[in-house]
Automatic annotation (TrEMBL):
Segments forming domain Pre-mRNA-splicing factor SLU7: 136-405
Protein name: Pre-mRNA-splicing factor SLU7
Classification via InterPro entries: Slu7_dom, Splicing_factor_SLU7
Physiological role: Involved in pre-mRNA splicing.
Phylogenetic classification of the source organism: Eukaryota, Viridiplantae, Streptophyta, Embryophyta, Tracheophyta
Alphabetical keyword list: mRNA processing, mRNA splicing, Nucleus, Spliceosome
Main location: nucleus
């Protein structure tokens, strides 16, 4: 119920309001009226009929459901084509350098480029164009006839009027010629009677003559500067007026779509009708029949040939593409016939051979064949060995046996020469003897080497110096000097841990003795040593 935003109601008032709404829905009470005096449908839900609080509606209304925003300034007008606004007498700064108009620049100028533009000559200044901007609505932007000038169809009417005048003039000239012949031949009665019949033929209604002249409706003419779109393409003349228009064949709104601008209807307007009774089956029927299908196949062939590297283009060189497609079909037919002949030569042609025996046709014979439960032949027919898919009994490199006929030490080979190299040349029995002699000699050499080998000598331990090299034989370390070097090393390490114990004016001795190196090695901490934490 369309109600205004009112104050709080008591329980009794609320109950009465509900009863009134039920009575209005049942038709027992008159419907509620809005501000304009129009009845409000009582079946409208409350969430739709209740006005928002911020509108401060004092009376019930449905205006809040209507479009309350003002529409933009939409217009249905169009550009004033060819209109000019101001004609200047001299060149102005910022104008087009070619024609002198202020509404565009030199890059967007559509006039013929002058040898010397208006900027330098100051002559023939073009007038400024009329620049307009429109704000179109949704339908206006998509209206294909928006801005169409009906006066542009005037030349079409004039062309048909001129054709009618020429036809009438021609008929009158023919009638005058017939009358002159009739006056000259009045003496002959037979000719007079014939002329009367001719006069009756000439007095045919002009409407019928026009209809006879319209029989060339199927003639294809070139389209020259028509509203249909440019000077390219073709268009047919108007249909015969006795024919039913294609958009009148089926008046159902859900039938095939008809485009009035292009006069095309792609789908069949009467799909359920007998095809023999129909004279129009849709424009798509023409696209898959006749030369249209062949042209489509030619296009597809040109695309595939271009993808495979051929320099062919259907639009750029149509003759070349057509010739290539023609040669492709000829070669395809030759290849197909050649393949067919090869198969017939190999397997024969059952259609041209003699009639097969009755036993083979019916699958019956007098031979008895016994099978086991697994389907294997027990007796009655010779068992055929299964053949491999590889070539059999093919000998290469002068071998007399096939590869894999000999096995030794987990290797396959040839039985004729006992070689395990597949591409080897056959050496026969001599090769077998030479291989055996070589193996015997190898075994004898191995045995002799094992007998002559002695036990490995013990490696002498070498003393290494502290710096990693071998210790010279004449190197002798004094134990007293080594003890003093160990004390010096301990003092140096204590000074490193606590620099406060270092004395001033310390003198360094750069000479390193073997005892010093040995003390450094003994005191050095090895990071990989698991007992390094217990050294100090």
């Amino acid at each position: 119920m369309a109600t205004a935003s009112v104050a709080f109601k008591s329980r009794e008032d609320h109950r009465k309001q509900l009863e009134l709404e039920e009575a209005r829905k049942a038709g027992l009470a008159p419907a509620e009226l809005d501000e304009d005096g129009n009845e409000i449908n009582p079946h409208i839900p409350q969430y739709m009929s209740s006005a928002p609080w911020y509108l401060n509606a004092e009376k019930p209304s449905l205006k809040h459901q209507r479009k309350w925003k003002s529409d933009p300034n939409y217009t249905k007008s169009w550009y004033d084509r060819g209109a000019k606004t101001f004609q200047a007498e001299k060149y102005r700064k910022g104008a087009c350098e070619n024609c002198g108009a202020m509404t565009h620049d030199k890059k967007a100028c559509v006039e013929r480029p002058r040898k010397l533009g208006a900027k330098w000559t100051g002559k023939s200044i073009a007038a400024d164009e009329k620049i307009e901007t429109f704000e179109l609505d949704y339908d206006g932007k998509r209206d294909r006839w928006n801005g169409f000038d009906a006066a542009s169809f005037k030349h079409v009417v004039q062309r048909y009027e001129a054709r009618d005048e020429a036809r009438n003039r021609f008929l009158k000239e023919q009638q005058l010629k017939k009358l002159e012949e009739k006056n000259n031949n009045q003496s002959k009665e037979d000719e007079v009677s014939d002329d009367d019949d001719n006069d009756d033929d000439l007095k045919v209604d002009e409407a019928k003559v026009d209809e006879s002249k319209q029989m060339d409706f199927a003639k294809v003419e070139k389209r020259v500067r028509t509203t249909g779109g440019g000077s390219t393409g073709t268009v047919r003349n108007l249909r015969i007026r006795e024919d039913t228009a294609k958009y009148l064949l089926n008046l159902d709104v859900n039938s095939a779509h008809y485009d009035p601008k292009t006069r095309s209807m792609r789908e069949d307007p009467l799909p359920d009708t007998d095809p023999n009774d129909k004279f129009y089956t849709g424009d798509n029927h023409n696209r898959v029949s006749g030369q249209a299908l062949e042209f489509k196949q030619m296009n597809v062939h040109a695309w595939e040939a271009f993808d495979k590297g051929h320099d062919v283009h259907m639009q750029a060189a149509p003759s070349q593409a057509e010739l290539l497609y023609k040669n492709f079909k000829i070669n395809k037919e030759k290849l197909k016939s050649q393949t067919k002949d090869t198969i017939m030569e190999k397997y024969g042609n059952a259609a041209t051979e003699e009639v097969l025996p009755r036993e083979l046709l019916l699958g019956q014979s007098e031979k008895e064949v016994e099978y086991d439960r697994a389907g294997r032949i027990i007796k009655g027919q010779e068992t055929s060995l299964p053949k491999s898919k590889y070539e059999e009994d093919v000998y290469i490199n002068n071998h007399t046996s096939v590869w894999g006929s000999w096995w030794k030490d987990h290797q396959w080979g040839y039985k004729c020469c006992q070689q395990t190299v597949r591409n080897s040349y056959c050496t026969g029995a001599a090769g077998i003897e030479a291989a055996e002699a070589a193996s015997d000699l190898m075994r004898a050499n191995i045995a002799r080497k094992e007998a002559s080998e002695e036990a490995p000598s013990q490696a002498e331990e070498k003393r290494l110096a502290t710096w990693g090299s071998e210790v010279p034989d004449d190197l002798v370390i004094d134990q007293k000097k080594l003890a003093e070097a160990l004390k010096k090393e301990d003092e140096r390490r204590r000074e490193e841990r606590d620099e406060r114990k270092r004395k001033y004016n310390v003198k360094w001795n750069d000479e390193v003795t073997p005892e010093d190196m040995e003390a450094f090695r003994m005191k050095r901490i090895h990071h990989d040593d698991p007992m390094k934490e217990f050294l100090h």
